[in-house]
Amino acid sequence: MDWFYRRVIRYRKTIMALFAVITVISAWMFTRVYVDYDLLNYLPKDSPSTTALEFMEKEFGGDVPKARAMIRNVNQKEAKEYKKKLEQIDGVISVQWVDSMLPLNMPLEMLPESLVKSYYRDGNALFMITLDEEKQLETVPLIYDAIGEDNLLTGPAVNTVVATVNTVQEVMKITVIAILFLIFVLAVTTTSWVEPAVVMIGLGVAVVINAGTNLVFGKISFVTNSAGMILQMAVSLDYSVFLIHRFSECKETADPETAMLNALKLSTSSILSSGLTTVIGFLALAFMKFLIGADLGMALSKGVAISLVTSLIFMPGVILATYKWMEKTQHRDFMPSFRGLGRLVCRVTLPLMIAFVLIIVPSYLASSQNNYLYGASKIYGTDTRIGSDTEKLVEVFGENDNYVLMVPRGDRTSENALIREIEAMPDVSSVLSIEKLMGLALPGEMLPEDLTAQLQSENYDRIVITASVPVDGDKAFALIDEIYTACDRYYPGEYYLAGTGVSTYDLKRVVSGDLVKVNFIAIFSVFLVLLLTMKNLLLPVILVLTIETAIWVNMSITHFTGASMFYIAYLIISSIQLGATVDYAILFTERYKENRLKLGIPPRECVVTTISDTAVSILTSATAVSVMGFLLAAFSSQRIIGQIGLLLGRGTICSLLAVLFVLPGFLMFFDKYVLRTFSLKRRQKTEEL
């Protein structure tokens, strides 16, 4: 690498200019990146619900209802007027109410009471609205205007629009606070007032380039858009700091350019090994079938890789251009030596190590027993209008969802038998179909034309099922299983079932299958990297087990507090916490080995010295990552993003405590084996021969 770094230093002005141009172009590209706010759009294209929706649009020329409006205190006539008002809004494809099922002016008493109560109850009218997905950003505000402040609007389409409007403001607020906090942390943990600004230049360039180059993906998810930049800043903060400190050390005995060359050669291995484990942890998400994980994993992996390149190619020029300013603005070291912490750790680490071993299995079991949410039905809390509207609507109409079932036309016997079986299911409140309406002794020509068009095409009949179950949860999934089983008996391989709950059912099936695969890839890949770099079989086991147990403890806290957890947050954090915090264990272990071999001090004294050497670096990174997570939790109105932030902040603290208070006990207990490497064993065998 000597020849390469010599050219990096020689052409540093050209490199800085090139990076400046790339950064400006990337900033422009970032404004062109499309952000998708619908979780269900990230289901695999071959999932049954996705296939059903595509086929339904082709056969009937429309989507399923994705918004629900409830109008309070109206009679049937006023409800019909509201319906007409909603139908006239640009972007509204159709509005379904109970009168859609009968000819004009025919009394609602002609329909079963259970069906009427699904749409009209205690003077409250509930409308199912199908929107043009391309126009919903403009349409939803118009619907809000039409129904007024006192009435309710909810549904997946509304979630998407609210997220689209709020996220940009929230991301900007979080980013500004994060930058100010990082500058404060760097000011406290470094010894120059200018150094934080230099580090932030490198971080800013890397973050902007990564955000702009997300354009290559075509679109990114709202999870990546909200959390990607924050996570990239937090986990790559150390790279430039480490290079600056190495440069300061080398400059004491060499001229600036030679010092930078030596600093690059000395720090490359540490920076790359640290970055590589982080990249691998993030990249494991790319193997998820649920594509939102792949979206976040690819973007974060790319971001860390760009941060590594920026640190080793762009930052040498920046440091050489600013080192005199850093020297002139030196201030006293605000951080203590941490030797007192080291002595405390030596006193408690062995009992803590034993306790840690004892909680490994219970924490693993508890971490998998959480009450999981799979979809986006509860993405907003009751402190937001949409969350409050959803809760109030449930209070009036109860938990309910609509499924749309398509079956081939022609076999009236099978269709009627299937309808009767579905109606008999305890959680089904009503079933609407052409065959059902014919059963009310209504001639086909009496049915409204728009209703007939919605329920019957040239090749298929469409059956609308209203279920008294939530969109998400075991009760809904059990009902969908029951419907699938019934359909398989009458129309094996010939039917299509769609709806928000059905998509959430598919989402559960997909992400549940992702868990074992993603965790295995992340753990095995990190283990393999550690095995190759440390050349020691025991150390990778200790390090990975330490961080994985911290992850299980983090997840089990949610279980013991009784809170619900979004499964996607659980899945993402399992990889992110491993990738982001295993560096602390690597840094501590490598410095412990170095101190034992070079200084020749006994294990207990080595722990004290190692904590003194590494505490500032570990605490700086851990503080940055945890605070970034807590900022996401505090300022994001989306509960998925907030929960990812909370788990990241809390998980980083768990990993930090495990590395500082438990890992030293493992290193002391297995000291004789920690110092061995494969190469040392081979050398010893050679000498014996």
The computed structural class is: alpha+beta
Report the helical percentage: 55-70%
Counting DSSP E segments of at least 2 residues, the number of strands comes to: 13
Count up the helices. Answer: 25
Strand content: 5-15%
**Domain module count:** 3
CATH superfamily membership of the largest domain: Multidrug efflux transporter AcrB transmembrane domain
Biggest sheet character? 5 strands, antiparallel
- The CATH architecture of the largest domain comes to Up-down Bundle
Q: Give me the Rg, rounded.
A: 30 Å
- Poorly predicted runs are 681-689
Task: Provide structural commentary.
The protein has three domains: 428 residues, Multidrug efflux transporter AcrB transmembrane fold, CATH 1.20.1640; 94 residues; 120 residues, 2-Layer Sandwich (Alpha-Beta Plaits). 69% of the residues lie in helices and 9% in strands. It is built from 25 helices and 13 strands. The strands form four sheets. Strands 2, 3, 4, 5 and 6 form a five-stranded antiparallel beta sheet that branches. Strands 10-11-9-12 form a four-stranded antiparallel beta sheet. Strands 1-7 form a two-stranded parallel ribbon. The longest helix has 38 residues. It is elongated and about 95 Å long. The two termini are 36 Å apart. 49% of the residues are buried.
